[in-house]
Write a structure and sequence with these properties.
By secondary structure, the chain is α/β, with parallel strands linked by helices. It contains 16 helices and 22 strands. The protein has three domains: about 10-50 and about 220-280 and about 420-455, FAD/NAD(P)-binding domain (3-Layer(bba) Sandwich), CATH 3.50.50.60; about 50-70 and about 85-90 and about 210-215 and about 295-390, Alpha-Beta Complex (Polyamine Oxidase, Chain A, domain 2); about 110-205, Guanine Nucleotide Dissociation Inhibitor, domain 1 (Orthogonal Bundle). It has helices at about 20-30, 70-80, 115-135, 145-150, 155-160, 165-180, 190-195, 200-205, 205-210, 220-230, 285-290, 310, 350-355, 360-375, 405-410, 435-455; strands at about 10-15, 35-40, 50-55, 55-60, 65, 85, 90-95, 100-105, 215, 235, 240-245, 250-255, 260-265, 275-280, 295, 300-305, 315-320, 330, 340-345, 385-390, 400-405, 420-425. This is FAD-dependent oxidoreductase.
Length: about 450
């Protein structure tokens, strides 16, 4: 990889963004005999995958988990020779209800009163049926699409049950845990797509499924190893400022170089498309669509302790509560590390509230929330770090883009429609594996195949 590249290049394909999707596409294209140049704005590859050493602790600042349905990611890990290990999950999980009562439990469903549990089971069954019927590939084409896209996730849940705790808990699995936006700000159709992309709503409820394994050494090794194989075709510190296009090809102008190519792949989150000056401007339909997509907001909190003390108390490190600042937490101890790490998440309006505080006040509030689950020892980590992707210039949110109300039914079918020689590729646009690395890889492969079909035509 070059940090001081040549001024002007000619390639078959220019790829904007060196995340998992762009690098997967570049790898497939070069394997097929096409020449590529990958231009990355950051001084590193990986996009929303980032493993870093913080005060002597290896932390996965971005995405990190592998679930058993993620075939594309699992295949890529095998191809790259990367090994995985299981997330620690022995012992009891913890749930805190609306009045602050803590209950230890095992299994998937939270320990709530019997009537609430029955409502949660009923809602999960209803959602699983909808997910199976609508699916992840074309939810906008379903006869109920307009109806489901015109009602918020919160309003849909309110229409289904009067049990407040049941709907708070069901809302959590989509709103705070995945979309990272308030339940009143996105549609029921968007929620169903989120569940469908994971195979079922039941899969989202099952933490042992959705957060099954981690990669030894960190998941960022996927883009790092892909970039290593691409070598001098990856250029860092090159944000693309302008993309000129016509039927005959594209010219990508970055800060220190220009690439002329037959095709372009824009492999960054949709909220960053507007950072590029497209000439001529994109069609009005595309312009409108991109304005209806935005990322959520979440703080990923890493707390490293001298030992995984919660295990001695018979706890797995898994905890949930829609009523706590930290709505979910897990044992995130690294492979063969004697220290213990908890990872917790603070989403949407709760994250807003945390960033209204000073760093010291925010740390105290978040650790206090963790202590509600795990006791006084949680207040005293040896390393504390907050992943704040909203402040990252070339990301500006987490985990992925979702549509505002009505946007998915209105624009969903056109998310990946090429504009002349320009293609779009990222996890935000995936069907299966939406907002996960698996989805990024799937879309990268599919985008490369689309270009190869054009190229060979």
């Amino acid at each position: 990889m070059e940090e001081n590249p040549v001024t002007e290049l000619q390639r078959d394909v220019v790829i904007i963004g060196a995340g998992a999707s762009g690098l997967t596409a570049a790898t497939a294209l070069r394997k097929a005999g096409l020449s590529v140049a990958v231009l990355e704005a950051r001084d590193r590859v990986g996009g929303r995958l980032w493993t870093n050493d913080i005060e002597g602790a290896m932390l996965e600042i971005g995405g990190q988990w592998v679930s058993p349905d993620q075939d594309a990611l699992i295949e890529t890990l095998a191809e790259l020779g990367l090994e995985t290990y299981s997330r620690y999950r022995e012992g009891d999980s913890v749930y805190i209800n609306a009045i602050g009562e803590l209950t230890r439990f095992t299994g998937e469903l939270f320990p709530v009163k019997a009537s609430t549990q029955r409502e949660m089971e009923r809602l999960i069954a209803v959602l699983d049926a909808l997910v199976a019927e609508i699916g992840p590939k074309e939810p906008w084409a379903h006869p109920m699409a307009d109806e489901l896209d015109s009602v918020t996730w919160l309003r849909w849940l309110e229409s289904q049950t009067d049990d407040i705790e049941a709907r708070d808990n069901i809302a959590l699995f989509i709103a705070e845990a995945m979309i990272t936006k308030p339940a009143h700000s996105f549609s029921a159709l968007q929620a169903i797509l989120m569940a469908a992309s994971a195979g079922s709503f039941s899969n989202l409820v099952d933490a042992d499924f959705i957060l099954d394994k981690r990669v030894i050494g960190g998941l960022q090794q996927v883009p790092l190893l892909l970039a290593e194989k691409l070598g001098e075709d990856v250029f860092l510190g090159q944000p693309v400022r302008r993309l000129e296009w016509s039927d005959s090809g594209v010219t990508a102008s970055a800060d220190g170089m220009t690439v002329h190519a037959r095709h372009a792949i824009v492999a960054v989150p949709p909220n960053l498309y507007s950072r590029i000056d497209f000439q001529p401007p994109l069609p009005r339909r595309q312009q409108q669509m991109h304005q209806h997509m935005s990322l959520g907001f979440v703080i990923k909190v890493h707390a490293v302790y001298e030992t995984p003390f919660w295990r001695d108390a018979g706890l797995s490190g898994t905890s949930f509560s829609p009523y706590e600042i930290v709505h979910e937490a897990y044992d995130n101890t690294n492979h063969e590390d004697p220290r213990g790490t908890l990872v917790g998440f603070v989403s949407d309006t709760k994250a807003d509230a945390m960033f209204a505080l000073s760093p010291e006040e925010r740390r105290e509030a978040i650790l206090t929330s963790l202590s509600h689950y795990f006791g006084e020892q949680a207040l005293h980590p040896v390393v504390y770090y907050e992943s704040d992707w909203a402040s990252e210039e070339w990301t500006r949110g987490a985990y992925a883009a979702s549509f505002d109300m009505g946007g998915l039914a209105r624009y969903g079918a056109e998310q990946r429609t090429p504009v002349g020689p320009i293609h779009w590729s990222c996890s935000d646009l995936a069907a299966e594996g939406y907002q996960h690395v698996d989805g990024a890889i799937r879309v990268g492969r599919e985008t490369a195949a689309m270009i190869l079909a054009k190229h060979d035509a």
